[in-house]
Amino acid sequence: MSGPRIVAAQIKPNSKKGPLVEVLEDGTLLLYVRAPAVEGKANKAAEELLAAHLGLSKRSVRLISGQTSRHKRFEVQD
């Protein structure tokens, strides 16, 4: 079992396309979530979407930076 890793992501809140994960050329994940960017709803949805995409539990993914930005970093515990 390895330690935590950092995953860079961009988030698209209020997306009709979501929930969906795309991988950009630089390895950054693009997370489309339906939740609005209000009261942390989009951040929570992004954590849940990333966990599902990686096949992990919701508790294994935690937002560590970018709470109010579209560019976010998540800590992922395998």
TrEMBL record:
Pfam family, one: DUF167
Superkingdom, natural source: Bacteria
Family to which the UniProt record says this protein belongs: Belongs to the UPF0235 family.
Name of this protein: UPF0235 protein FCG67_03035
Natural source organism: Rhodococcus oryzae
